Amino acid sequence: MKEFLRIYINSYRGLSRPAWMLALVIFINRSGAMVLPFLGVYMTQHLQFSIKDAGVVLSCFGLGAIIGSWLGGWLTDKIGHFKVQLSSLFLCVPLFLILPQFTHVVSLAIAIFVLSVVSETFRPANSVSVAYYAKPENVTRAFSLNRMAVNLGFSIGPALGGLLAAVSYSLLFYGNGFSVLIAGLLFFFYFRNRKGYSKTNVHAKSADATALKRSPYRDGVFIVFNLLVCLYAVCFFQILNTLPIFYREVHKMSEASIGIILAFSGLIVFLLEMLLVQFAERSMADRTVIILGTLLCGLSYILLNAPGGQPLLYLSIFILCISEILAMPFMATVTVRRAGNENQGAYMGMNALAFSAAHILSPYIGTRIASDFGFGVLWWGTGIVSALTAAGFYFVFKRL
């Protein structure tokens, strides 16, 4: 036990103070992230939307995320990651506060689209910020720390959101807006004059000097890599879209119970991410970790078709958490190493674009398959797509 604790504590050592503060900002922001996990349930249960209409609105979030990711990457290279993140945080506050006023499909879809554009400009700027404030030798662990903070917040947000939803769904939006405001204030006062580290060693694995200046939109292998990242995210993001509806309609779970199981997923990632990432970083190549994480994603959803009650649901989401831990930080590291200092925002923007596109495709495809063919077909299909995506990663990494 002492040796385990020593290894666990060492997985956190060596990270810079700004990296920790950036993680704290993300933690506060995500602790209030109650809207998105419950948006599908809110629309189908409170607003009485059909599953297909709910999928349309959720897809508008993804459409806005695509524009926001591209815009965030472009703005980051133009005006810097600090200004982009600060603007995104403060502009989101009033948008969350007025969201409960939109109760029709079209108006809510437009409102979610605008919110998504503003909120998702944060993502590429934040990724550049993580790399900027991390020590060169700790870039992957810095991304893991950031994701750990996201998931610790995600373990609190849905649990609190489930309790608030039982009182009033409007409280979800107000709570989300308040947490973004606090995160924005902390970010401004700590990072306004903060300098980062030299990134000389981060790009040591880049092929040549020309590669550091090229556009990611002309980097063919990297484009294919991000298409595969998008496919992985389409499968993974069922956790935010169809999975809560599956819990509610098939297993008859209450909003509070859904919040608890989603909180469990965040807690698992918080407890295990740094430890598993450190182990994977030392013992496996990046491509092996990403491929393994992709396969586990498919396995987690296939398990939902097996007979069983809530213990099976918890086992499934536990495996999905391990998938997330293994795949996502290393996808970010591959992107950082592929980019140069001059175009890091653009590269991170394209990587964020892959996840944003998944925010469109995941709810749209998932809700339609579930509505027309049933959840069983959806989970089998998700498993098959994950396996094919893992095979794609295997061949792409030979050229990447």
What's the short story on this structure?
The chain is an all-alpha fold and 400 residues long.
Any overview of this molecule?
- The structure is a single chain.
- By secondary structure, the chain is mainly α.
- It has a single domain (16-190, 213-396), classed as Up-down Bundle (Growth Hormone, Chain: A), CATH 1.20.1250.
- The chain contains 16 helices and no strands.
- The chain has helices at residues 2-10, 17-31, 35-46, 51-79, 81-98, 105-120, 122-133, 139-167, 170-191, 220-236, 242-249, 255-283, 286-302, 310-338, 344-373, 375-396.
- Helix 4 (51-79) runs parallel beside helix 6 (105-120) and helix 7 packs across helix 15.
- The longest helix is centred in the C-terminal third of the chain and has 30 residues, at 344-373.
- The protein is globular and about 50 Å long.
- It starts with a helix and ends with a helix.
- Residues 200-208 have low confidence and may be disordered.
